[in-house]
TrEMBL record:
<dbReference type="InterPro" id="IPR014407">
    <property type="entry name" value="McrC_bac"/>
</dbReference>
<dbReference type="Pfam" id="PF10117">
    <property type="entry name" value="McrBC"/>
</dbReference>
<feature type="compositionally biased region" description="Basic and acidic residues">
    <location>
        <begin position="375"/>
        <end position="387"/>
    </location>
</feature>
<feature type="region of interest" description="Disordered">
    <location>
        <begin position="375"/>
        <end position="396"/>
    </location>
</feature>
<dbReference type="GO" id="GO:0009307">
    <property type="term" value="P:DNA restriction-modification system"/>
</dbReference>
<protein>
    <submittedName>
        <fullName>5-methylcytosine-specific restriction enzyme subunit McrC</fullName>
    </submittedName>
</protein>
<dbReference type="InterPro" id="IPR019292">
    <property type="entry name" value="McrC"/>
</dbReference>
Length: 396
């Protein structure tokens, strides 16, 4: 039997703490940027972006408001498959069960049928989120409101059994229940906020391998989600998780099976400035020990970005010939922002301080897209940078 996706009783969120060296409130901020709720609420999301410490309370308010709105119009219904012994045929007859239990002799027949119900996985998920947020929220009014709504859903017939991962993953929104999106997005964020954490202390330990992979992926999703909401769609086109094609020729029969693909994290197209920024997020230190120096940029990442940019030249889309690259790393207590032009493509190396407050993190992310900067050179000037030096840089 598949285990439930969530068990609200198992979750607690301390008031202060760290995931590795990153404050929990900033992990919450990344979760907000990566969530559907941030995309739905946009820049007018009740100030949720500006107060990450109060995020559970604010998410609880949004969730409670969305549930109240849906309850006024009645929660969405759905179909579930049931089997029962009935005195009339409904749906399909289960012949094997009918014969095995000799139901016909008692005037019954085993049937399998779909039944309209309010006890859907979506509604059970929302009820479980209300119960969870009532335990992690700090404000008494939010706690009481969420508990009341969870009890109301119970009285309507929504059970307290959490849905399974399979049930949640197969849930789709139709035109008739599009109003559920904000409610479900808030419920998902409520569960993501309930993360395991270390209590605040005098020591800040490194992330475990599992947590590091999770936070690395979260960082990528957060940066992409942030730009999708913050950058106006009339001026910018934001793509996440896209692929690039190699400009191949004279390929042998088996090369397609073994040729590595190129997958970008985030691509920003500036429609006004006719500028493209290819962003690759990393989750380690931006510099490492070099062969002949104490600090050096990671050569593998540079080669990767160089391949992204140079391989797309001449593709004919208008942005690729002088596209820019950005390697974006998180940092703890430090900032780093350096750039170089290599064969006509500006490549930038930048960090975001994840120990700063939310306003500073937002400001650092916005530094990725200043239109005041020159966005590349063309023609004969492509072989030289601003200082007049040859941009074909040799790295050791």
């Amino acid at each position: 039997m598949e285990a439930p996706l969530i068990q609200p009783d198992d979750y607690t969120v301390p008031e202060h703490g760290y995931i590795g060296a990153i404050p929990v409130r900033n992990i919450w901020l990344l979760m907000l940027y990566a969530s559907d709720l941030f995309r739905i609420k946009g820049m007018d999301g009740n100030g949720i972006e500006d107060m990450p410490d109060d995020l559970p309370d604010l998410v609880g308010e949004i969730l409670a408001h969305a549930v109240e709105q849906r309850q006024r119009r009645r929660l969405s219904l759905g179909y579930r498959t049931r089997t029962a012994a009935l005195n009339r045929v409904r749906g399909r007859i289960d012949v094997l069960k009918t014969e095995r239990h000799q139901l016909l002799s008692r005037g019954l027949v085993a049937c399998r049928f779909d039944e309209l119900t309010i006890n859907t996985p979506r509604n059970r998920f929302v009820r479980a989120a209300l119960e969870l947020i009532s335990r992690i929220a700090a404000r008494p009014d939010v706690v009481r409101r969420c508990r009341r709504l969870a009890n109301d859903m119970k009285m309507m017939g929504v059970s307290g059994t959490p849905p399974t991962l399979r049930e949640i993953s197969t849930d789709r929104f139709g035109r008739h229940d599009v109003e559920d999106q904000e409610m479900v997005a808030a419920a998902k964020l409520a569960f993501e906020l309930a993360i395991p954490t270390e209590n605040a202390g005098s020591q800040k330990m490194p992330l475990s391998d599992r947590d590091e992979r999770w936070v690395r992926k979260l960082f990528e999703r957060a940066v992409g989600g942030f730009f999708k909401v913050v950058l106006p769609p009339t001026d910018w086109h934001v793509r996440t998780g896209g692929t690039l094609a190699w400009p191949t020729s004279a390929s042998t029969d088996g090369i397609s099976r073994i040729l590595p693909g190129m997958r970008t994290d985030i691509v920003l197209d500036d429609k006004v400035g006719q500028r493209r920024i290819v962003i690759d997020t990393k989750f380690n230190t931006i510099v490492t020990n070099g062969w002949y120096r104490e600090e050096s940029l990671r050569s593998g990442y540079l080669y990767q970005m160089y391949a992204y940019l140079r391989s797309q030249e001449g593709s004919g889309d208008g942005y690729s010939d002088d596209a820019e690259g950005l390697l974006l790393h998180p940092a703890v207590g430090t900032t780093f922002d350096e750039s170089v032009i290599i064969q006509g493509h500006k490549i930038r190396f930048m960090t975001v301080d994840l120990t700063a407050n939310s306003s500073a993190i937002r400001a650092e992310l916005l530094r990725v897209t200043p239109r005041s900067e020159c966005h590349g050179l063309s023609g004969k000037d492509k072989i030289k940078d601003d200082a007049g030096q040859n941009s074909g840089v040799e790295w050791t």
